[in-house]
Amino acid sequence: MEHVHIPYRSAIVLSLMLMACVPARKYQELEARANTMESEQQTALAKARDVQARSDEQQMTLEDLQKRKTLLERDTATTGIALRTMQRQYDKINKLNDELLDKYNNLLAGDRSENRKLLSDLEALRLDLQNKEDSIARSSKALAEREARLAELRTELERKDKAMKDLKERVSQALTGFEGKGLTVEQKNGRLYVRLENKLLFPSGSAVVDQKGQEALVNLAHAIENDRDISILVEGHTDTDKILPGSTYKDNWDLSVARATSVVRILQGRSAIDPTRITAAGRSEYVPVDPDDKAKNRRIEIILSPDLKALYNMVAD
User: What is the 3-state secondary structure (H, E, C) of 135-196?
Assistant: First the structure.
């Protein structure tokens, strides 16, 4: 984290004390302005934490979908085994039924009481056989429905995975000139992570993106602006160095939010991306990629996530 030495509110107050000719009204205006900016910083911090909560919830939803898919596959396999077992039992009952029918035909001329008992046994066997046939029919239908849902889920997951691979290729091509210069593109957990170190985006102590950083962000924006079902989360990260007194930013939360917001403004303002698809979030110092390398921890991460509502509905139904 770069140390920022930009006096702000304290410098204004000191200047007013040293210059007796400045009217008291001017001092009050500056004081009110400083209070307003501090309030806005607190509001931005609260929004950043709320965005993080939504991001964590989205990650949990993705993990829940994968777990539900695994359970559905396991349940389908179990049902198939049960159906095959019932089919073998059904074949045995059919064979026994044929044997009893032969005995019945041989005993028709025998004792009537014995015949009545045999007929009663045959009727009980027939009813039991009918019940098993009905159970097998219901199980077969349920298994067919599960297999159809599982096939549909697999197809949709494969489609989503291919779409993310295609997106990664487009993004990598758009940022070819920047990879290896503080920029990496990685696909994991069904998402695409574009990581830009601060040296590629911001001058020391600033939340204003420099010219080269703007070029990289505009290339990225044009590569993803037509992907309507992709949500875009921009996360600002800092190192563990504390903000010095007198800085423009109150703490690392404040700085990480400011930098994420600067990136979002460029993505939105220099492309046709729908603003409702973009979220800015500050993660402060708490999600380092390398505890021993502060430069890597000072970064912007742009996380591209597919819309999982359709998949979730398929598993939940």
Answer: HHHHHHHHHHHHHHHHHHHHHHHHHHHHHHHHHHHHHHHHCCCCECCCEEEEEECCEEEEEE
Q: Going from the N-terminus, what domains does the chain have, and what CATH number goes with each?
A: 9-31+47-69+168-316 (3.30.1330.60), 74-162 (1.20.58)
Tokens of 286: 């708490």
> Could you tell me the pTM of the whole model?
0.57
Q: Which amino acid appears at position 44 of this protein?
A: A
For the chain, give the number of residues.
Answer: 317
Full pLDDT tens readout for the chain, 317 residues? 444 444 445 554 445 455 544 567 776 887 787 788 778 778 877 876 877 777 777 777 777 777 877 887 787 888 788 778 888 887 887 887 787 777 766 666 665 666 677 778 878 888 888 888 888 878 778 778 777 777 777 777 788 788 888 889 999 998 888 877 889 999 998 899 999 999 999 887 789 999 999 999 999 999 999 988 899 999 999 999 998 888 889 999 999 999 999 999 999 999 999 999 999 999 999 999 998 999 999 999 999 999 877 666 666 66
